């Protein structure tokens, strides 16, 4: 009887482990050669924003899972010569919006992305608009005349989740 109960408890624990909060799937980033691993089915939105001295359409694929927001944003700058400048401005704007006290930067370049000094993975802590604390992991990179930001926002982010998200960014 005890063995049966122990086996049932073990089976139940195994079933809980298999019911994922993060349901990873490969997503093609529309009209670009980028694919991303997203832990949930993303919604798509677009809006006009100033970038690189002109208005561009910024498209975002985003979703929420496991207490975090995951997003891949991209825009065609129309000017491959200014990609590094645009990435640097985008990073500065994001950190400003977070009211980040400091940031840790490391080079980041998915296979197929341009080798730019502004291609970075940036980890920062800041505040949401409501004042609550938030961690941000963001990657900035470019290919062709497109700039990209892949970002996760969470109250506390697990390193394995960030690794799965960022290692899943690939150009086809």
- Determine the CATH superfamily: Mog1/PsbP, alpha/beta/alpha sandwich
Helix content: 10-25%
**Spans where pLDDT lies below 50 across 5 or more residues:** 1-19
Distance between the termini: 55 Å
Which structural class fits the helix and strand makeup? alpha+beta
Mean pLDDT: 89
Quaternary structure of the protein: single chain
Rg, Å, rounded: 19 Å
Provide a descriptive summary of the structure in words.
- The chain has a single domain, classed as Mog1/PsbP, alpha/beta/alpha sandwich (Protein Transport Mog1p, Chain A), CATH 3.40.1000.10.
- With 172 residues, it is α+β, with helices and mostly antiparallel strands.
- The termini are far apart.
- The protein has helices at 2-18, 83-98, 159-167, and strands spanning 25-28, 34-38, 43-51, 54-65, 68-76, 103-107, 120-127, 133-143, 146-154, 170-171.
- A hairpin with a 5-residue loop joins strand 7 and strand 8 (133-143).
- Strands 3-4-5-9-8-7-6 form a seven-stranded antiparallel β-sheet, with helices on both faces. A three-stranded antiparallel β-sheet has the order 1-2-10.
């Amino acid at each position: 009887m005890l063995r049966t109960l122990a086996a049932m408890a073990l089976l139940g624990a195994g079933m809980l482990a298999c019911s994922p909060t993060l349901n990873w799937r490969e997503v093609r980033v529309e009209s670009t050669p980028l694919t991303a691993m997203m832990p949930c089915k993303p919604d798509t939105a677009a809006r006009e924003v100033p970038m690189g001295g002109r208005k561009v359409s910024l498209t975002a694929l985003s979703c929420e899972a496991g207490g975090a927001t995951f997003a891949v944003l991209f825009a065609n700058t129309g000017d491959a010569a200014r990609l590094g400048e645009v990435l640097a401005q985008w990073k500065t704007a994001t950190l400003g919006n977070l009211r980040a006290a400091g940031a840790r930067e490391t080079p980041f370049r998915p296979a197929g992305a341009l080798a730019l000094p502004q291609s970075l993975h940036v980890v920062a802590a800041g505040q949401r608009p409501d004042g609550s604390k938030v961690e941000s992991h963001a990657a900035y990179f470019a290919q062709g005349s497109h700039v990209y930001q892949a970002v996760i926002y969470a109250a506390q982010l697990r390193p394995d989740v960030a690794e799965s998200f960022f290692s899943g960014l690939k150009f086809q």
